[in-house]
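Might I ask for a little of your time on a matter of protein folding? What I wish to show you is a protein chain and, alongside it, a tokenised description of its three-dimensional fold. I should value your view on which stretches of the chain appear to form regular backbone elements. You will find the record immediately after this paragraph:
***
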Amino acid sequence: MKPDSTKAAIFRLLVAAGAVVVAVIAARWLAVAAVPDEVVTPSEELAQLPLALDDWAGEEVELDEDLFLATGAACTVNRNYTD
């Protein structure tokens, strides 16, 4: 291999490695930026969601209290909808 072609290969390798590093940093930054700092709860009660949605009919299902506490949610609605 000629010295010039070795230098060119090393340069291409460094450029490719740099592009990978930039892509990883950009992906991590975008992943962090996509998560909001604060969660806004809905202004309306979830229980006001309709039980009938077009051809679908819903029925309330009791949610286990331990499961509710484990979710960390401020409010939940637990329903089964069937058509």
